[in-house]
Amino acid sequence: MTTAVLALLNTFEPLAKLSAGRKRELAGLCFVEKVSQGINPLRMNISNAKQAVYLIKGELELRFLNDEKVILRGDDTAARHPIPCDQNLVDSIARTDIEILRIDNDLLDIMMTWDQLSTGDDVLKSVHNTDGGKSNRTPVEWMRDTSVFSVAKLQSGVFSKVPVANIEAMFERMERISTVAGQVIIQQGAVGDYYYLVERGSLLVSRADGVNAAPMVVAELNEGDAFGEEALVSDNKRNATVTMKTDGQLLRLNKRDFIELLKEPMLVNVSREVAEAMVADGAIWIDVRLSSEYQYEHIKGAINLPLNEVRQRVSGLDMNSTYIVYCQTGRRSSAAAFVLAQYGLNVLVLAGGTRQQAS
Ligand SMILES: Nc1ncnc2c1ncn2[C@@H]1O[C@@H]2COP(=O)(O)O[C@H]2[C@H]1O
What we know:
InterPro entries: cNMP-bd_CS, cNMP-bd_dom, cNMP-bd_dom_sf, GlpE_sulfurtransferase, Rhodanese-like_dom, Rhodanese-like_dom_sf, RmlC-like_jellyroll. By secondary structure, the chain is α+β, with helices and mostly antiparallel strands.
């Protein structure tokens, strides 16, 4: 089956342009579907660019907004390209029994980018295990095998704002560690050293609000989650203790690599002047200081979202808005911006905080 699909990929654009190695991987991730005469095979795709759909054989009628009808045949040159499922297409109908090939568009996009970045055909990326072993995985295997680098995460989560080249570099520099239930990975108050991704297992985040206070569990982290970013972004001490709830496997990136590969590209700083112009255009100020500091004084129109509440209140923010976060120095705001960016929000940081911008 995969060999047959591979042969098909060689006839479609831009799939034919992928390297042989990438095409082999893609062959296992796309679907060939038989559709009976009279059925609309694009029902789920019209105005929805989630999948690229190719006509393999048969006749498909496409109906467009301006009443134009086009008959596409499997052996037409036009059928070498994805069926145009944009907002102009209103309906389609199989005029004969047909066969189509479906591929997730995001996956395709990421693979095209990766392919163009790779220096060779089958360049294997390696991750070092702390027990001395090494595992080799291609970028596509990373996407398929671990939820940390799923297509969804690459498209809208922590890594969506990071250049693909940096993600490739991460694959090479990350270390994999095996962990056991009860193991403390991060201790509240310690100096930040690593950024972690959960490949397998669950962890508990607990915080003690005072020297003698008992720690309270504030969150549970699971496969695909990331943690340990706040101390690295803000240069503060670890704000919570993170303990393995079950046995598991983590990936970790040291502080220097984290700053270079993730923090720098994810955090965009803007001057007060640029920020004001953006706010006039609809962007929203977020003050990430404590509510007591906010109540004392704040930038007009700013909402207050203290750093330690950002995760709990992120669902109340609008994915389509642009937010400009600030504090006095830029430290807390950078940490908050990184957390918000991990949830896929459009966020910028007031460079140097209000203190620097005022002087
Ligand atoms: N409420 C929370 N929910 C999820 N993760 C948290 C929460 N509070 C702290 N953390 C994580 O725990 C980590 C402790 O180390 P850091 O301060 O570097 O970064 C912190 C966050 O990644």
